[in-house]
Write a structure and sequence with these properties.
single chain, mainly alpha, 13 helices, 2 strands, globular
């Protein structure tokens, strides 16, 4: 066979392209249905995440980013600094990361513990045959149905030192009015209380569903064996709820760790900074004073890394527990 004849023969396609074409021919409808979701996620999640990671590797701030001043366009002058921002955070050079991290962990633990504990108690009560049970469920689920910012503003009004309902109640019995958000400790107690109020309904509904999925025969068998109510709760209810509680605790930790609305909307600028968790501190770093976009982006990536590490560790730990 001559060289010209060999050149005229069709060349084999790369295996990857062949595989993609075969998948498209077979599942084109599924690809078409998934494509809008992928595009939206790429535009709203992947691109901001990638751009934030890029900014975290620079020294970008309000003074050196590109901006328009009237008809004059000032080009960006920031440059790459590598991992310097991450080193400043991890080494404690900025002096703010570890205090904020400590309070964020305390805030998350307290909120999730109270949310799961109170939600468990309410779920146990509503799992019984009581009058007006449907009405109680509806009333208890309202804090979850109401938008978070509406609930936070309602609490902010109730805690107001001049016009709040709490001060009206205590002054009506002869006690002096209090400034409920005056000190860092009072602010921390207030934000935990409001976040627990918002999060309890979800835990109650999830745990109530888990309770109703536990076979009643297990309780009857335990009762016939002479088990007390506490023993039935420890040996039947808790093991039966383990898959639900594992998921609820994981979601609660992720949501609470990133709960921006409660702290920012309840306190606004009326804070010394001690009440800021990592996410609200990153927001203030980006949008107050001389905006430090690189530092705020670094905090965002660090928060993401912490949550990914915690989620991976938690899931592996729960899987080992379930297998054991």
């Amino acid at each position: 066979m001559t060289t010209a004849a060999i050149d005229k023969q069709p060349r084999p396609r790369p295996r990857l392209l062949t595989s993609v074409k075969r998948s498209w021919d077979k599942h084109w409808y599924a690809w078409a249905m998934v494509a809008p979701v992928v595009i939206v996620l790429a535009a709203l999640v992947l691109y901001p995440l990638g751009y934030g990671f890029y900014l975290s590797l620079t020294n970008a701030n309000e003074a050196n980013v590109a901006r328009d001043i009237g008809a004059f366009h000032a080009p960006a002058t920031y440059h790459l600094v590598g991992l310097d921002n991450y080193w400043n955070v991890v080494s404690g050079a900025d002096g703010d990361f570890y205090p904020r991290l400590t309070w964020t962990v305390v805030w998350t633990f307290c909120c999730v513990a109270f949310q799961v504990g109170i939600g468990m108690g309410l779920a146990l009560l509503l799992n019984r045959e009581v009058r007006f049970r449907l009405l109680y469920r509806t009333l208890l689920i309202l804090p979850w149905a109401v938008p978070a910012f509406v609930g936070v503003f309602a609490w902010r009004l109730m805690l107001n030192s001049q016009f709040g309902v709490f001060n009206d109640i205590i002054t009506s019995v002869g006690l002096p009015a209090q400034n409920w958000l005056a000190t860092p400790l009072a602010q921390k107690v207030a934000v935990i209380m409001v976040n627990v109020w918002i999060g309890v309904p979800f835990n109650m509904v999830a745990l109530l569903g888990g309770l109703q999925s536990i076979p009643k025969e297990l309780y009857e068998a335990a009762e016939m064996d002479g088990a007390s109510p506490w023993q039935r709760f420890v040996n039947v209810t808790l093991p039966g709820l383990r898959p639900v509680t594992n998921t609820v605790i994981l979601l609660g930790c992720i949501w609470t760790f990133n709960m921006f609305a409660v702290i920012y909307l309840l306190l606004g600028n009326n804070t010394t900074g001690e009440t800021d968790i990592l996410v609200t501190y990153a927001f203030r770093k980006a949008f107050t004073g001389i905006s430090d976009y690189a530092g705020a982006s670094t905090y965002g990536i660090v928060i993401l890394a912490l949550l990914l590490a915690f989620s991976t560790f938690y899931r592996r730990r729960t899987l080992k527990t379930e297998q054991a």
